């Protein structure tokens, strides 16, 4: 029986991996006699690899084209990258296994699938291994290692991509995208889509945990053209936050509220009539869970490239390709008595699955032992359970 689980996540490569880990931890935490131990995978490589993880934010904020080059190169060199990471994390990872002695390893970051499986295989260690994909459509081959016992996919589209990469279909389970419970407050999702014709709409502008995009220009346009009340979340980008407060605060006063990285983001999303966001999968699915219509204002090259089309396919959002298109995009949402805005809210309610985290946890905890016997791996060094704290984060 699976009682002791090691989760390999990431604290610095965006906030999505950590959010997914928290969504699952909420459900693991209420299961008796189940312990989870969470580690930042980059910390297993010491300061060098941790610095690499921390570079994600600055690179994606300041140079999307550089990120595209990194994404494209590593995607075709996955075996080489896995080998490098394997060499960096091997010693600390084996020490962690000896300390934690997990019954199962769950990864929620692509860089620690092939690398960890390499270590387990070469050291003849059999520990059940499950991958949870944190992207929606445009997944990298790092997510799709066929040696994993199971791969949990958020969408049928990501499952299809895994099959293209050579993963057997019966190893892939689709359970939706896990979102933290505080985004699923039933009182927010009532189906009441009434909008007062003379009352300004509340607009939230954000761009994921790293805070990028033409937020100031968007805010000015939305106030001038539609009289919206604006809330801006600049994320960890402190320079952007200071600039926006200086450029917008004096001119618009209470019409604009500006935040940095905030812990109550679910309240800001739920209080908004429209959320203007980059197509970060985590932020998108949190807005969908809050039943807040989305205007997608950009996509990071690589893992987010297919998300705008995905969101429009299921009528969860509308895409605005540039600030020049902002006014006609909002006009389309608001015309015919906000018909499109109402349709998006209806589609979000039909799409969202609050049971996704619980279903994932139940699946993991109930994988039969006879399904976890990979061929060609000896059991000479099997790791057995021991007691650890209910949830322990390492960095």
What does this structure look like?
This protein has about 400 residues and is an alpha/beta fold. Helices cover about 45% and strands about 15% of the residues. The protein has 14 helices and 13 strands. It has helices spanning about 15-30, 45-55, 55-60, 65-75, 80-100, 115-120, 155-165, 215-225, 240-250, 265-270, 280-290, 305-315, 325-350, 355-365, and strands at about 5-10, 35-40, 105, 130, 150-155, 170-175, 200-205, 230-235, 255-260, 275-280, 295-300, 315-320, 390-395. The strands form two sheets. It has a seven-stranded parallel sheet with strand order 6-5-4-3-1-2-13, sandwiched between helices. Strands 9-8-7-10-11-12 form a six-stranded parallel sheet, with helices on both faces. Strand 7 (about 200-205), helix 8 (about 215-225) and strand 8 (about 230-235) form a beta-alpha-beta unit. The longest helix has 26 residues, at about 325-350. It is globular and about 65 Å long.
What characteristics describe this protein?
single chain, 395 residues, alpha/beta, seven-stranded parallel sheet, 14 helices, 43% helix, 15% strand
Structural class: alpha/beta
Quickly count the helices: 14
Termini separation comes to 28 Å
Strand content: 5-15%
Determine Rg (CA atoms, Å).
22 Å
| Strand numbers in spatial order across the main sheet | 6-5-4-3-1-2-13
How much helical structure, as a percent, in the residues?
40-55%
Mean pLDDT: 87
Q: SSE string, helix = H, strand = E? A: EHEHHHHEHEEHEEHEHEHEHEHEHHE
Largest sheet: 7 strands, parallel
The low-confidence runs, each spanning 5 or more residues with pLDDT under 50, are 373-395
